[in-house]
Amino acid sequence: MAINSARSSVFGGRVAALAGGVGGAKLAHGLAQLLTPEQLTIIVNTGDDFEHLGLTICPDIDTVLYNLAEVNNPAFGWGRADESFHVLEETKRLGHDAWFMLGDKDIALHLLRRAMLDAGMTLTEVIYELARRLGVTHPVLPMSDQPVRTMIRTPEGEMPFQEYFVHRRTKPVMLGMRLAGLAEARPTAQVRAALDEADAVIFCPSNPFVSIGPILALPGVRERIARIPTLVISPIIGGRALKGPAAKMMQEQGLEVSALGVARHYAGLVDGFVLDNVDAGLADAVRALGVTPFVTNAIMRDRADRRRLAVEALGFVKRLTGAAGAK
Amino acid sequence: MAINSARSSVFGGRVAALAGGVGGAKLAHGLAQLLTPEQLTIIVNTGDDFEHLGLTICPDIDTVLYNLAEVNNPAFGWGRADESFHVLEETKRLGHDAWFMLGDKDIALHLLRRAMLDAGMTLTEVIYELARRLGVTHPVLPMSDQPVRTMIRTPEGEMPFQEYFVHRRTKPVMLGMRLAGLAEARPTAQVRAALDEADAVIFCPSNPFVSIGPILALPGVRERIARIPTLVISPIIGGRALKGPAAKMMQEQGLEVSALGVARHYAGLVDGFVLDNVDAGLADAVRALGVTPFVTNAIMRDRADRRRLAVEALGFVKRLTGAAGAK
Predict the structure, then answer these.
(1) Do B114 and A88 make contact, defined as CB atoms within 8 angstroms?
(2) In this predicted model, what pLDDT tens digit does every residue of B156-207 receive, in sequence order?
(3) In chain A, what are the domains?
């Protein structure tokens, strides 16, 4: 592949990054600081999406967009910085059970999305347009234009992911999960093209089950990724998820709650695995799975951390790409 | 009809009030101060409704609801008091041409309406529920559950009413109007029942063409009203509309821009006509149309004015009802 002068000196090829919400958005933001829009495409989970308060809510996509636009709220991990909640407060006074936090600026974006969807635009087209308006230049792609909805099976019955995660604060035991709508869903043409053209795939530090899992479940995605050097940034560090329910889910699924458990989950599909320093002791066990380990500081506390981890991940990608013939 | 002790001493019967937005909402609020929820039903124009920013906007219904709930913005005539515009400001930053003002509290109500409509509720059911949540006890009825959309013909082409009225500030000449959807629209069962049970009908001071007109255009409404003593509060005072485009519309339709022009418009259907003191000189001409005139101060500046005009209108209704056999 020709590498023009605008391309990153860290990595000259094309990267497809798979991302869920908070952790995924952080690394995507780091990668976007290093790679041109021609080099980096971010493919985002839509399994968390849901209809609420008359709006189509896309938590992972919006978190990625807000992070790339640098208008995200760093304290919450979701939503906008400098946010107010006047609308939500009034919905409460009008009797709405406002369990899902939506700030006023966030609602503005949701209203534009509602209007565009109602006008017949696909989700891909809508996100392209919203990204443009937010000043985001890197392609952010919904994994599918057909709704896929992650349903969590619990002893209290099946519930949509956001109901389980936000409303019920992951209290119910997860007995299993199901991707409603999967049978009718396909990866978009843009997602297929991004994977076909990618020199490497990076799984951002996102939940393996409810963030990366739905993307991998789409027809043809696994097969495409299996042909490309792929690395994973572990979302589990020191046996805990930095954010979200990944650790609890692994435990309830009877999996080992550790970076190694994540590596086992992906073994056979991926080539490299980034471990945090605290998990350095797992490197040999990861290697034994046929996955190349890379140990570094995998925690992203600020903008500089995001860039640093992205630099290291891309350096690792470069080495994996060089050794791609081994896959 | 039996009159129980809770009923108004001003008028003991049942009233169906037809209303558009600002002026109509003011008198509806005055009537609601005097009549019980069993005595007063407010039937509201939906011809101004439109889809915008992903929301179904019902300007007249909301203005009536907000006035009855006493949360309206008296300075604007539309929307909520103590309002902020954080969402709309952000939509502007995101490239939306925010020509229709929607405050944050207003948007809260619109989101609840959107969610209820999406859930399959009829507009009547939605407004019943929103009224309940706002603490409004008098029935507020959309004229129809089928969308009727007032389209204004202008030299620049046909445009929806709000586009003409708000976005274009009534600048284009009105060549005519059309009620899109009318052929499929019926008055709701609740509207039909309210008219069947009414002892009197009051046309609030609303635009005869775009506020009262669409209600009268629904099949069966005129026939029902023709059987009931009906009075009109003139929306034109001293040759001018207190609010809205009624005067400009009358002029462009080649009608006399005066309370008499309005009385002529309704002659044959209505029994009484309330003129402001400045139009006292028109009383004889109104009488010559076969319509009984009543002259008073018809301007409602504050809450007390609304109540006073409602008292006078109901006193006039009482006299008309007594003479109803003459119709």
Answers:
(1) no
(2) 999 999 999 999 999 999 999 999 999 999 999 999 999 999 999 999 999 9
(3) 15-148+181-326 (3.40.50.10680)
